[in-house]
Design brief:
Blueprint (H helix, E strand, L loop, with lengths): L5 H8 L3 H9 L7 E2 L5 E2 L2 H15 L4 H9 L3 H38 L6 H12 L1 H32 L3 H22 L2 E4 L6 E3 L2 H6 L6 E5 L6 E8 L5 E2 L1
Parallel strand pairs: 4-7
Antiparallel strand pairs: 1-2, 3-4, 3-6, 5-6
Helix pairs in contact: 1-2, 4-5, 5-6, 7-8
Length: about 240
């Protein structure tokens, strides 16, 4: 039967001698024989065991888990559980990395549109991106909540044109005005704006916000801190912001 030294095992498995010695000290791979000269010798089975250890380590399984696995009388069921657990961990890590990549891409995109780069502008980007998902959910909720009134609107118009029945249109007009005001208040209570001049995060009065000129992401408002009227960046409101 072939015998292998520590160096030969390391070479066959593509690892360092120090790694083989480390597994020995942890009692994960103990040499089958020690020569009279004190050389540690490993068998073919030991080499196979080392290759399995390397395989599990490459899969991200911890040293302690591998040690526990090899101490089991029937390791087949245990290794399946370990691999499934490690798969979940890696999927979570992948999700985290994907989120970080999205953040980096978002920062790059925002920086390209920023002429005056500064710590303040970076803070604005960070604040906006931090609340981006909350703002997206709020806008989605607004769209969904308006669907019933959209259906009622087109249905009443159809009845008026095709059947000459006008009262559903009147009913829609009576309902839509208070509902639109309520929905707008609901929305503006949950959003805030970032002044591009002094970078103050503030919440404007409802009347100003409602009638202000705007785009999907900007609204022309007067900052309560610096007094400048400009296109302010919309974001989701955190707990405490400056109110006008």
């Amino acid at each position: 039967m072939s015998k292998y030294t520590t160096g030969e095992v390391a070479k066959l498995c593509g690892i360092t001698v120090r790694t083989v010695q480390y597994y020995d000290t942890r009692n994960i791979l103990v040499p089958s024989e020690v020569s009279q000269g004190g050389r540690r010798l490993y068998t073919e089975e030991d080499v196979k065991r080392m290759k399995v250890i390397c395989f599990l380590r490459n899969a991200g399984i911890s040293i302690n888990s591998i040690k526990e696995l090899f101490s089991e009388e029937d390791p087949s069921s245990t290794v399946l559980v370990l691999l499934e657990q490690q798969k979940k961990i890696l999927l979570e890590e992948m999700k985290e990395y994907q989120e970080k990549l999205k953040i980096l891409a978002g920062i790059q995109k925002e920086l390209k549109s920023t002429n005056d780069f500064s710590i303040d502008s970076m803070y604005d980007i960070a604040y906006t991106m931090k609340n981006k998902n909350n703002l997206k959910r709020l806008r989605t909720l607004m769209i969904i909540s308006g669907i019933p009134f959209g259906i009622l609107q087109w249905g009443s118009i159809f009845l008026w044109i095709m059947k000459g029945i006008w009262w559903p249109t009147l009913l829609w007009a009576i309902l839509i005005i208070p509902y639109a005001i309520w929905l707008s208040k609901f929305y503006f209570q949950r959003v805030a704006y970032i002044c591009p001049q002094c970078h103050q995060v503030f919440q404007p009065k409802f009347k100003e916000a409602f009638w202000a000129k705007h785009t999907p992401t900007l609204r022309k408002l007067t900052c309560p801190n610096c007094g400048v009227k400009s296109m302010c960046v919309e974001t989701y409101k955190e707990k405490e912001v400056v109110t006008k």
